[in-house]
Amino acid sequence: MPQSDALPSPDLLDLRAELPAEERTRLERIEEHLQTVVRPAVIEPWTRDEFVPDLLPGLGALGLGTIFTDGSSALFQGLVHAAIARVDLSLSALVGIHNELIVGTIAHLGSKEQKAAWLPKLQALEAIGAFCLTEPEHGSDIAGGLATTAERTEQGWTIRGSKRWIGAGTLAQIALVWARDTADDQIKCFLVPTDTPGYKATKIEHKTGLKIMQNADIVFEDVEVGQDALLPGATSFAQANDLLLASRAWVGWQGVGAQQAVFDILRSYALQREQFGKKLAGFQIIQQHIAEIAGNLMASAGMMRQIARLAEAGDLVMMHAASAKATSTRLARSSASLGRDALGGNGIVADYEMTKVMNDIEAIYSYEGTYAINSLIVARALTGVSAFR
Ligand SMILES: Cc1cc2nc3c(=O)[nH]c(=O)nc-3n(C[C@H](O)[C@H](O)[C@H](O)COP(=O)(O)OP(=O)(O)OC[C@H]3O[C@@H](n4cnc5c(N)ncnc54)[C@H](O)[C@@H]3O)c2cc1C
């Protein structure tokens, strides 16, 4: 914990103290770059819904394309996800999806050839991927409802259907597409280069949250790929579910980072802004806001620390991950609302960052399973009774 006269860092439980020295140094190097280079560079693009391609090489150089596969501890991975979320939830979404759902899927379920062709470029962040699961008519009920089809042909497969909300769908070099095999009705995953004829991605305009992340509607019009496009390890929805276990835990860390941002922004604002001749930080109600945000943040961080322990031990199950995701994003939403109130009118001006964080949190509250769906998953595990199919 920072000492005496220094104010505490937003790592209020000092989780980094548990990292081996080498990982702690690496985390601090990453945080330094994120705070000094990335944080000031994302505010304007956020207001214009623009992606920030120029920031990717810097993230790649820091190894942010490899954290899932380079043997880092689960706690280090979590603290890195939080550090990125603390400066920008869109970039955190990109890096999280990239590591957990793109690199992770290919590394665990891909063929030797798929790994050799794509992992080096992906890990250097020289290429990015799109994870294509959700559809226009099937969000929460995707497992049962998935309608995109893959039909066996003499040469390979023909993919037909549409997807919605796909992160980086207009920017990615490859898409991992979940489609239903018309022969056996199983949901399988296909690696589709995005320059394949018939792949049509359109940016979703006018989002009010996660505005830097480019989400797309994608249509697959008779997209023909070879037999080698099928990921040999991804031959049923159970494999997608295994990936969602890790990615739900990652979103829990996003909730931690987002609350660190709320805490950072509010504390520095309250120590500068004066009303009635004194700093906002000296008003009791503002102090209560700060204390409540700190409590939410520590509750989320402490829970995520234990989630990392369970992951390291191989004991993490969906009930844990779903609860962590739901709880951390619920608390983040509550913290952002307090933070936004405490900035007064400036709480709705993007230059002051709070409204950026608050709006971005709305997206993480709904993706990777909405709050309701994750709650139903938890309660099903706890009661043995399913409220949905
Ligand atoms: C910014 C963003 C990025 C995303 N990125 C990706 C991506 O890269 N790849 C991808 O595949 N998907 C992505 N998604 C999709 C995301 O996973 C879905 O939005 C999510 O699963 C919810 O689906 P939906 O939006 O269709 O909501 P719906 O399923 O239509 O839900 C609407 C409301 O109904 C509630 N509801 C639904 N069913 C039930 C029930 N049985 N009981 C109680 N309440 C219920 C929900 O909780 C919600 O409140 C992204 C979404 C967002 C917003």
Structural commentary:
The chain has three domains: 15-123, Acyl-CoA dehydrogenase/oxidase, N-terminal domain (Butyryl-Coa Dehydrogenase, subunit A, domain 1, Orthogonal Bundle); 129-236, Butyryl-CoA Dehydrogenase, subunit A, domain 2; 238-383, Butyryl-CoA Dehydrogenase, subunit A, domain 3, CATH 1.20.140. It has 389 residues and is an alpha+beta fold. Strand 8 and strand 9 form a beta hairpin. Helix 10 (318-342) runs antiparallel to helix 11. The chain has twelve helices and nine strands. Strands 1, 2, 3, 4, 5, 6 and 7 form a seven-stranded mixed sheet that branches. The radius of gyration is 21 Å and the shape is globular. Helices cover 51% and strands 14% of the residues. The protein has helices at residues 21-41, 43-47, 56-61, 74-87, 89-109, 112-123, 142-145, 237-272, 284-313, 318-342, 354-366, 371-383; strands at 129-132, 149-152, 156-167, 174-181, 187-193, 199-203, 215-226, 274-275, 278-279. Flavin-adenine dinucleotide is lined by residues 97, 131-134, 139-140, 165-167, 210, 215, 363, 366-367, 369-370, 372-373, 376, 388.
